[in-house]
From TrEMBL:
Protein name per UniProt: MerR family transcriptional regulator
Originating species: Planococcus notacanthi
Record keywords, A-Z: Coiled coil
Coiled coil (UniProt feature): 139-173
InterPro entries linked to this entry: DNA-bd_dom_put_sf, MerR-type_HTH_dom
Occurrences of domain HTH merR-type (ranges): 5-56
Gene3D superfamilies membership: 1.10.1660.10
Keyword Cell inner membrane: no
Keyword Coiled coil: yes
Highest taxon above the source species: Bacteria
Length: 185
């Protein structure tokens, strides 16, 4: 039975990034991504047991006031419970001398290319930048247009207000007929 990461984090009240970090430390073994479940990580029952043990160990450390996880304690508990399946991954990087020589050669080659490019740049004639454009006239025109637009807006508002007043007057006045049906004015 495989349990998806989404269900596991809810049930154990964990964060998905914690599980991925534990996976990177190789505490969980080979974690499978299920193509039927959108390639999300799924865990075996044994991996779930490992996750529970890791979470319990870390919670116990927090209860003791230890703020940073004691990884060695976690690894020791995993080793005690699950045997020799947990292997420590050395983080020290060992570099062969010939690799260092190759890196030095690459850096020297890059420095040579940088020097050549600097010489080419110095040999190129200095190009003049175009004169800056004076935008004061354009700005003045825009201000004038804005002022005209505001004046038109004020005129339109006055017309709308006058129309509203006239409409209110019409509503108050009694209706007169323009037709003379009976010959009276």
């Amino acid at each position: 039975m495989h349990i998806p990461i989404s269900r596991l984090v809810k049930e154990l009240n964990l964060e998905a990034h914690q599980l991925r970090e534990w996976e990177k430390r190789d505490w969980l073994g080979e974690v499978v991504k299920d193509p039927r479940q959108n390639h999300q990580r799924v865990y075996t029952e044994e991996q779930v047991e490992r996750i529970q043990l890791i979470a319990e160990t870390i919670q116990a450390q927090r209860a003791k006031g230890i703020k940073r996880t004691d990884f060695e304690e976690v690894e020791a508990k995993l080793l005690d419970r699950f045997g020799g399946e947990v292997k420590r991954i050395d983080t020290d990087l060992v570099v062969a001398p010939q690799s260092l020589n190759q890196i030095v050669e690459l850096l020297m080659g890059q420095n040579q290319k940088i020097s050549e490019l600097q010489q080419l740049m110095q040999q190129q004639p200095k190009q003049q930048l175009p004169d800056p454009v004076d935008h004061t006239e354009v700005l003045a025109d825009l201000k004038n247009e804005l002022k005209k637009s505001q004046e038109r807006e004020e005129q339109l508002l006055a017309i709308v207000q006058q129309l509203q007043t006239d409409l209110d007057e019409l509503k108050k006045a009694p209706a007169k007929s323009k037709w003379k049906f009976w010959g009276k004015d």
